[in-house]
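HUMAN: Can I see a protein plus its fold?

ASSISTANT:
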Amino acid sequence: MRIAERAGAQPMPRHGARVLHYAVFPYSGITALSQLDNDLLLRALNREPVPRTPVWIMRQAGRYLPEYRRIREQAGSFMALCQNPELACQVTLQPVERFRLDAAILFSDILTIPEAMGLGLYFEPGEGPRLKHPVRDERAIDQLPVPDARDELGYVPDAIRLTRRELQGRVPLIGFAGSPWTLATYMVEGESSREFRRIKTLLYDRPELLHRLLSKAADSITDYLNAQTEAGAQALMIFDTWGGALSHEAYHAFSLAYAKRVIKGLTRQREGRHIPVIFFTKNGGLWLEAMADSGADALGLDWSTSLGEARQRVGERVALQGNLDPCALYARPETIRTEVARTLADYGTGPGHVFNLGHGVHPEIQPDHVDAMIEAVHELSPAHHEQR
């Protein structure tokens, strides 16, 4: 049912890059909405006992699903889809309706904040996101605004409110954002990069200027994530996709420090519950001990780090999420099952594990292979939680 139909109003026209008006019910009935039929994810993130390992997957709403591709075509562009709360809600729900997942994650993009800052986000087919107006000098950085997450980015909390209603407590809803460092790489480079030439030149030649950019990014991300929590997100994830491209010293100064600043500023209680935060640095296995002191409740791991070794290193300070290689899903279902068993065994027994991929699911993966992975987690993980 369309948002306007639910509220008894007519859909309003779009203008430019954002939706100016759309009708959404006021967010009321917190007590009823806070009841969850399945809270395994939240319990696991808090390292509480669970009967089995919860499972969800990064990019679980995306191009590998034919139903997603149909809505993406209907929307006309990726950003039009992100900025339409009704369609974003539909896409968010698709994997939850297809698979036995233990969480939904809002369909959006980490670069909504640079878009709201006026940097002109667009997508080249087959080449990923690009920004029309990257910031590469002092004047451009100093003139960057900090967008209001409830205004310029208001379509995101609106999509969260609608999704919470449609989920009806089936599973928790995860909100997310990119880390300050990761957003800054796109804002300076203007696109994905292998060498990070421009931003690393800024890091070494003008570190104080990069700190000013990261400070603005951190303030924007903190406000953005808090707006998501206010709208109904029940867990949060911070994606530090490019932190692993930094040297040891630079990671602490330019990535981790600002992620910690964001986490410290987050609202951590809502609807009578703790709001857990997952912090994921791709290729960040070198820094797990420092990441565990970030204030996050859980760390995401890519496939290059052993779950068992990571558990020994962080102890009981945080839960762990991961970390099957996404490419394992190209294999036969029986091989996928074997890899699921290996991943569960690597973590071991007891609480504190959320099963996930080590990064996002690839567009070419077959949905039935994703289902094989999820069903294997359901079948095999209870043995790792038996009381002895």
Observations:
- The chain has a mean pLDDT of 91.
- The CA atoms of residues 76 and 273 lie 38 Å apart.
- The longest helix spans residues 207-231.
